[in-house]
Fold this protein.
Amino acid sequence: MLDNLAVPKFIGRISGHNSFDSAFFGINKKQCDDMNSMIRNVLERSYEAIVDAGLNPEDVSNTRMGVMMGSNISESENTKLLLGNHNYGYRILGHNRALLANRVSYWFNAHGKSNSHKI
């Protein structure tokens, strides 16, 4: 039995978090190495959502598609920012949750509103 209730008995982990295709998303490999896995995951899931909706990602390019999302701090954010092995000068860009929606909008070339909200 755990004496410290702050430590969970079980945790969830995302598999394949190191398999991000930086070239596909047009992100510099060094920037990707310093990037929070949440940002990589948001880009991948956004792409999947468009495809799962039956759209070709090129169909939303140059449209007024809006991107709104909420985010909270991630465990890997503190680990990578404070203890990261790489320091290529991209850490602030790679961990800025305020830019989450903007990254998605930029990648899809969407021109609608783009907002990230801290939840």
